[in-house]
Design goal:
Blueprint lengths: L15 E2 L11 H10 L13 H11 L6 E4 L1 H13 L5 E6 L4 H8 L3 E6 L17 E5 L11 H10 L3 E5 L23 E6 L12 E4 L2 H8 L9 H11 L2 H24 L3 E2 L6 E5 L6 H9 L2 E2 L11 E5 L3 H15 L1
Parallel strand pairs: 1-11, 3-4, 3-5, 5-6, 6-7
Antiparallel strand pairs: 2-8, 7-8, 9-10, 10-12
Length: 340
Amino acid sequence: MTGYVPGEQPRGDSIIKLNTNENPYPPSPRVLAALRKATNGSLRLYPQPLSETLRSAAAKVYGVRSENIIAGNGSDEIISMLLRSFVGPGDRVAFPVPTYSLYDTLIEIQDGVRAAVDYPSDYSLPESLAAQNAALTFLCNPNSPSGTLVGLPEIEQLARKVSGILVVDEAYVDFAGSEGASSLPLICRLPNLVVLRSFSKSFSLAGMRIGLGFAPEELISGMMKVKDSYNVNRLSMVAATAALQDIPWMTRNVRRIQRSRGKLTAGLKRLGYHVYPSHANFVLARKQEQNLNAVYEQLKARNILVRYFDTPGLQDCLRIAVGAPQEVRALLKELASIDA
């Protein structure tokens, strides 16, 4: 298996890479054309400090004002801004676990206090999350690694109950398949809500590192004070702006991934795995009380990379990104031979 034809052939010389939730399809041709046009003498100039062009384009697409948006070097940088803005030594930061591991790392840097609450077995919203008296509460929605989704009524109720800021991390929400999945409409009536978006997943721009944060203007204004001066480079702004001008391209690729997700889920279930209902571009596959490290290693030996978590509660799971159709078929074939 060599070479790569977008949507059909495996990526890399002989590696099927399903461990980092990258999009198997290329970004919009408009993005590539805009980048070629922008690769000129203007690179000697600093980028816009406040990313005005990108924020204006995003405001039109998402139906908010530019003042409700902050741009970052990936949504990871915006998470860091949030910690620097709202968390000092001894402040509590709450989130349900298992979830995105970066929260832990950044809390430690700020000398904050980790207030982790276990998800129930079905990954529904933990009842005690709102009662943690936290300066910041994170909810990855859809969650990683489970791919599960919490509904808007529950999120609004959570935002009204928490004592501090609620951050809904929507890196994967475009794959949810529902217009009502995003919490963005809530920022107009909830003064403590921040919603994060990423261009890495649905827009196929992981290599450009672009993220957006949406919040009431007062929160955005405060976050602007702690961000780096030129935190988003010129080409990343060009790429993200062009991507927002071709939403149909993104939507088409999302639908292709959703179809492949269904086939991957069905195939894994035939092999005896429990698969959580995923609203993301990956699935979490479990074989109850069976350590799957050996399966992970055997797949790796066959040049197929998936994600194994050597942590309590996840050792019987594999997180598998939804690849192109041929990649999904190859994975299921190898898994069948391993399990045979």
